[in-house]
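Two folds, back to back.
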Amino acid sequence: MEISLDKRAVRQIRLSAQDAIEEGDTETLREDILEAFTEEQVEEIERRLDSGDFYEFLTEMLDEWSGDDVDELLELMDAQLGDIGVDMKFDKKGARVADDEDDDEDADADDADFDDDDDDDDDADDDDEEEEEDTDDV
């Protein structure tokens, strides 16, 4: 079985893992990882687990995690799921790159808004020039 996590899900896991590193609490991280998977994916994973409990699987995985490296967590998740025949597809660095790209897109959007404002000012200047021309005729 192959499971692909989208960039949003990977980003959420990364953010949650970073919070877990800082706060030393993995409860929210476990919930966020669980939410990254669809209900159908969770059911398929549970069919493959001896215990049949994905939540317990995540608890054991997080117990194995050193708790100080986000990439290590993603690698551990990939390895643990691989052991039960689930092939994870996600770019371990992709979410970080996507964040940078999103920031660039936001900056471009801000620039576009700024440019639009400039265009409005130019239009107002054009109106002023037309009014000046009208007064010259009088």
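---
second:
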Amino acid sequence: MARAIAYSVSNRLQPIAAAILCLMAAQLVLASCGDPEPVPFAARVAVER
């Protein structure tokens, strides 16, 4: 009984999980294609030895 319930829930969640994975992959692709954002407050600091 519990195994049948687990399989039915798993089958219902498979399309949702696939959609989330596709959205994550699309965000990674779009983030890698864009111009890199400048880092705020970036500065070169001389190190004295």
